[in-house]
Task: inverse folding
């Protein structure tokens, strides 16, 4: 089945925040591995303090037997620091959407793309790489208005894309 261009920019699910994700639905879909973006998904951009809601969500997901893995363009040090605080492993500097190493993380665990999900706050990085890799994609609203300059440009382009898709 041939997929149109816009398939790669349309998330499978859109939610306001991590707490709005029905984890049992993910388990029923066969999901075993959750790759999650760091900035403006797990924590507000460049913040060091982790919201209580994030701690609770991570603990709930882990208690249900799913692996949560940070998959971010943030620095290796930032991913390691936040990961340590949350008890998660992860990878930084993944250069989404250029380098497609999400599938490698799944393969290391003996999983197929249909057993993975990518959660993030950006269409042109998180949703795009998730769709390319063949995992279920969830788009969350950014947890902060602060963004990296390039991300601000992406958000403007995302608004244009949404208008076009809804026209």
Result:
């Amino acid at each position: 089945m041939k997929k149109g261009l816009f398939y790669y920019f349309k998330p499978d699910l859109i939610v306001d925040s991590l707490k709005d994700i029905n984890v049992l639905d993910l388990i029923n879909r066969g999901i075993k591995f959750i790759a999650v973006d760091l900035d403006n998904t797990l924590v507000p951009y460049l913040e060091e303090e982790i919201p209580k809601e994030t701690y609770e969500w991570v603990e709930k997901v882990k208690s249900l037997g799913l692996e949560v893995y940070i998959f971010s363009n943030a620095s290796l040090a930032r991913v390691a620091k936040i990961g340590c605080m949350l008890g998660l492993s992860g990878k930084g500097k993944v250069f989404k959407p250029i380098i497609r190493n999400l599938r490698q993380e799944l393969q290391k665990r003996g999983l197929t793309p249909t057993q993975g999900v990518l959660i993030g706050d950006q269409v042109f990085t998180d949703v795009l790489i998730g769709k390319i890799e063949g995992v279920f994609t969830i788009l969350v609203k950014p947890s902060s208005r602060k963004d990296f300059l390039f991300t601000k440009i992406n958000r403007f382009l995302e608004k244009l894309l949404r208008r076009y898709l809804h026209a």
Q: What stands out?
A: Residues 5-166 form a domain with the Rossmann fold fold (CATH 3.40.50.1000). The chain has a mean pLDDT of 86. The chain has one domain: 5-166.
